[in-house]
Amino acid sequence: MTTIDLPAPHTDDLFELRFSSTARGARLAQRLASHRVHTWGHRYGSEVNDAVSLIVGELAANAVTHGLVPGRDAQLRLVRLTRERLRVEVSDTRGERMPAVRAVLPSGDEVAGRGLVLVAALCQKWGVDERTGAPGKTVWAVVVTATP
Q1: Cα–Cα distance, 93 to 131 (Å, whole number)
Q2: Which residue in 100, 96, 123 sits closest to 112, CA to CA?
Q3: SS3 string of 72-135?
Q4: Residue 73 to residue 64: CA distance in whole angstroms
Q5: Radius of gyration (Cα) for the chain, nearest Å?
Q6: Average of pLDDT values for 32-47?
Q7: Would you say 69 and 132 are in contact if contact means Cβ atoms under 8 Å apart?
Q8: pLDDT value for 110
Q9: Cβ distance 141 to 87 under 8 Å?
Q10: Which whole number is the average pLDDT over 70-89?
C-alpha cells in the first residue's frame, strides 16, 4: 500500500469534518461537502459539485455501514490539490475491512456492490490507505475539476 505524500494545503484549500457514524452523519458530510465545493467555485448542480457530492455520499455511507466501530466517529477531508484536482477522503476506524471494486457489476437481485463502481466512474483515481495517526483506513478519490 502506498501513501501519497501531499504538500500541506493552504487553509482555504482544506475542509475537515468529523461526523457521527450514523446515516444522519453521512448525509451531513455529503451536504457540507457540496456546500464547500460550491464556495470553491463549483456551483450546486455543476458536474464537479454533483460528482463530489455523490462520491462523499457513497464513501460516507460505506464508512458508517462497513467501517462502524461503536462510539467512534468518521472523518471527511476535502483538499484542493491544484486548480484542476480535488481530493476527497473519508476515514473510519476499521482497518481490517478494506473495500475493493468488483470486476463485474452485481446481478439485479443484489442490493449492494455498486457504490465503488460509481466512485471509480466519477473520479480520476481512487484508493485506500491505512489511516495515519489513528486506527483504521482512509478511502480517497481524486476528482478532476477543470481541464488543464
Answers
A1: 8
A2: 100
A3: CCEEEEEEECCCCEEEEEEEECCCCCCCCCCCCCCCCCCCCCCHHHHHHHHCCEEEEEECCCCC
A4: 9
A5: 15
A6: 97
A7: no
A8: 59
A9: yes
A10: 94
Cβ atoms < 10 Å from Cβ of 94: 17
Query: Which grid coordinates are listed for 52?
Result: 463530489
Whole-prediction pTM? 0.86
- The H or E element that residue 137 is part of is strand 137-144
Strands (E) in 8-51, as ranges, are 14-19
CA 27, 86, 91, 101 dihedral sign is: positive
pLDDT band at 88 (very low <50, low <70, confident <90, very high): very high
d(CA 20, CA 5): 27
Provide the 10 A C-beta neighbour count for residue 119: 23
Question: In angstroms, rounded to a whole number, what is the distance separating the alpha carbons of residues 36 and 42?
Answer: 9
- Banded model confidence at residue 80, pLDDT cuts 50, 70, 90: very high
Q: Are strands 74-80 and 85-92 parallel, antiparallel or unpaired?
A: antiparallel
